[in-house]
Amino acid sequence: MSRPRIVAICGSLRDESHTRKGLEHALDRAAETGGETELLDLRTWDLPVYDADASEAGDATAFTERVRAADALLLGTPVYHGSYATPLKNALDYCGFDEFENKTVGLLAVAGGSFPITALEHLRSVCRALNAWVLPHQAAIPRAGDAFEGDAADWRFVDEGAADRVAVLGERAVEYATIEPDPPCMESTENVGADD
């Protein structure tokens, strides 16, 4: 049996991104538990602001192919104004049912403050609209400035609770990567997409 392919999308463009660190930690655990992993760092992809009339602009075709090839996805975002970041929203706009339907998705939100939950709820709604199977376990890293030490190249968690939550996210992505799909959810049947 082949190893499940776990692909993470980092919604932060910062060089010292705590979101990227969190996703790397989750992917490390996914690899330890039998997954084949890849991080899609949005800093390296040419994805212009989404225009439905130019849906194959830049690197969009290559990007969606990588997302489509995943058995499970991890979506990571910093929290901006109580929701998820624009780079992630833009990347998700290039995707649709072909990339997400019946796919396992894990969610990670990183906040400078103490309440990253609304961003996770917003991402969960987007994934359900695409009929993805969103893991019940989600990982939040509040007060991210205090959760890590070191720089982007050499860092470690100092918040062990956050480290454990993020590691479990990677484990669950592998564990449920091939879960039997549910019937389409009501949200997805009402999602007509950008082609209307």
TrEMBL record:
<dbReference type="GO" id="GO:0005829">
    <property type="term" value="C:cytosol"/>
</dbReference>
<dbReference type="Pfam" id="PF03358">
    <property type="entry name" value="FMN_red"/>
</dbReference>
<dbReference type="GO" id="GO:0010181">
    <property type="term" value="F:FMN binding"/>
</dbReference>
<dbReference type="GO" id="GO:0016491">
    <property type="term" value="F:oxidoreductase activity"/>
</dbReference>
<dbReference type="InterPro" id="IPR029039">
    <property type="entry name" value="Flavoprotein-like_sf"/>
</dbReference>
<dbReference type="InterPro" id="IPR005025">
    <property type="entry name" value="FMN_Rdtase-like_dom"/>
</dbReference>
<comment type="similarity">
    <text>Belongs to the SsuE family. Isf subfamily.</text>
</comment>
<protein>
    <submittedName>
        <fullName>NAD(P)H-dependent FMN reductase</fullName>
    </submittedName>
</protein>
<dbReference type="InterPro" id="IPR050712">
    <property type="entry name" value="NAD(P)H-dep_reductase"/>
</dbReference>
<feature type="domain" description="NADPH-dependent FMN reductase-like">
    <location>
        <begin position="4"/>
        <end position="144"/>
    </location>
</feature>
